[in-house]
Amino acid sequence: MEDREQEVSFKKETVGKLLSLFFRDEKTRVSSDAATLMTEMLKVFVQEAARRAAKQAETEDSHTVDIDHFEKILPQLLLDF
Fold first, then answer.
1. Which domains does the chain show, CATH number per domain?
2. DSSP label at residue 65
3. Which keywords does the record carry (predicted)?
4. Whole-prediction pTM value?
5. In Å, what is the CA distance from 50 to each residue of 1, 13, 16, 26, 32?
């Protein structure tokens, strides 16, 4: 498999809005620092998921990563984070 590193990015504003959807109190706000931190954590999470899914595909002698590979590594991600 080729080792291609692609940049993962999320808009800080989008992450902040997604976070605010889960607040119980409408007055609760996400600070800029919190949104930046959560954006970085989401980026790391997605990169790790991609790496693990690629490794799973490689283990199964597959040249492409598909949703089945991701579904197999999902329990690992939930336990690690």
1. 12-80 (1.10.20.10)
2. -
3. DNA damage, DNA repair, DNA-binding, Nucleus
4. 0.76
5. 13, 24, 23, 34, 27
- What does the block give as tokens for 44? 């790391």
Structure tokens at 53: 């899914």
Question: Rounded to whole angstroms, how far apart are CA atoms 49 and 7?
Answer: 14
Least Cα distance to 15 among 45, 44, 40 occurs for 40
Tell me, what DSSP letter sits at residue 64? S
Instruction: Summarize pLDDT for 50-80 with one digit per residue, the tens.
Output: 999 999 999 999 999 999 999 999 998 887 6
